[in-house]
Amino acid sequence: MFIDIAKIRVKAGKGGDGAVAFRREKYEPSGGPYGGDGGNGGSIILQVDNSIRTLMDFKYKRNYKAEDGENGKTKKQYGKKGSHLVLKVPLGTLVKDGDSEKVIADLKEEGQTFVIAKGGKGGKGNAKFATPTRQAPRFAEAGEKGEERFIILELKLLADVGLIGFPNVGKSTLLSVLSSAKPKIANYHFTTLTPNLGVVKVDDGKSFVIADIPGLIEGAHEGAGLGHEFLRHVERTRLLVHLVDVSGIEGRDPLEDFYKINEELEKYSSKLSEKPQIVVANKMDLNTSSEYYENLKEELTKEGYEVYLISAATRKGVEALKYAIWDRLVDIETNYETFDDIIEEYEEVKDIEDGIIVKYEDGMYIVEGSFIEKLLYSTNFEDIDSSRYFQNTLRKRGVVDELKKLGVSENDTVFICGFEFEFFE
């Protein structure tokens, strides 16, 4: 089974909480604050592994969580950092946000890594909050929550050349002849289910990657047959080698087949129809091929296509085709589809969402955001120093000024991360 799309949830580890502790050793009964910091939570990292060809592993397990950081300890000892969780993905994997479906990362290089969920920072121990005027702080900082998100992994094969055409025109056979790939080959009328990749060696230091991509049928642009699964893999190829069966044994007109395939490409994406194509008339070894071939070549040559006659079964004409493909590739700039602009836009939106939000909604003053949530859970409201630190931090971060702009008055209720507070100067 070939799995080329998967939906998973990832959750990074929470940072450990800072410790509240005091030095209580012999001869030092009134020692100062002694609490250590919490360890950082583990992150979840996606890593490209060229030995992996599908997203099969993510079909059976949908939830992934990294290790939490340990809490801080006394004697200013730091908690242990949580271990990172590394998820291996195939080359050519797109990572999308599960809600907006915007592209987060484009993994197209061997060994490339991307932190998809960052571990929470460990909280500071009370030793870090000691000042000349606050010599015995009885509060520490809570560890940050790790990032959690729902993501979509989508595999798009990275091949220089894509073999396209109706089922049973000889794509798998041609791939096996051009390269050392060993696709399953049989005389069936349904399409190959699994894309196959092969490396074609032209000369020393000269080679290209070719993919036998599952065959198209009419209505593929609407999802018929393998539909979108097929078309997704064509998007990144630089050159299309369009195979047609000129034997006529299937009872189809090869010229009509050619136009039908290109019509499906056009309906799915205009970019696909604009990709350069080489037309290959296969099965020349059969007696009925000449009539169909002459008609095909005459028509398509007028339209500017190069047409090659081969027999993948007997290998006649295959060597000349290999060099023709290489010559075309040399003239085509390597320019895989990229998503840098979309990724940058996504990150800008994400940064805003992670900030402090102050708003007036449905008659209520509301303050929320990841920073505010962390500050709230780090505060010991029974300790005057901790409460004062909470208030001062809100002022320094501009929360109080924003509330005033919204019209807050003395004794008004302000909801901070769901908790009610009374506003006063």
TrEMBL record:
- EC number(s): the record gives 3.6.5.-
Xref: CDD domains: Obg
Q: Which GO terms describe its cellular component?
A: cytoplasm
Task: Give the highest taxon in the source lineage.
Answer: Bacteria
| KW Cell membrane (keyword) present | no
Q: Where is the Obg domain?
A: 1-158
Name the positions where Mg(2+) binds: 172, 192
Q: What Pfam families does this protein's entry cite? A: DUF1967, GTP1_OBG, MMR_HSR1
Tell me one GO molecular function of this protein. Answer: GTP binding
Give the GO terms filed under biological process for this record: ribosome biogenesis
Pinpoint the OBG-type G domain residues: 159-330
Listed cofactors: Mg(2+)
- Places the protein is found: Cytoplasm
Keywords (alphabetical) are: Cytoplasm, GTP-binding, Hydrolase, Magnesium, Metal-binding, Nucleotide-binding
- Please give the InterPro entries that the UniProt record associates with this protein: G_OBG, GTP-bd, GTP-bd_Obg/CgtA, GTP-bd_prot_GTP1/OBG_C_sf, GTP1-OBG_CS, GTP1_OBG_dom, GTP1_OBG_dom_sf, OBG_GTPase
Question: What's the subunit arrangement here?
Answer: Monomer.
Family matches, as NCBIfam families: Obg_CgtA (TIGR02729), Obg_CgtA_exten (TIGR03595), PRK12296.1 (NF008954), PRK12297.1 (NF008955), PRK12299.1 (NF008956), small_GTP (TIGR00231)
Q: Which HAMAP family match?
A: GTPase_Obg
Per the similarity annotation, which family is this? Belongs to the TRAFAC class OBG-HflX-like GTPase superfamily. OBG GTPase family.
> What's the protein name?
GTPase Obg
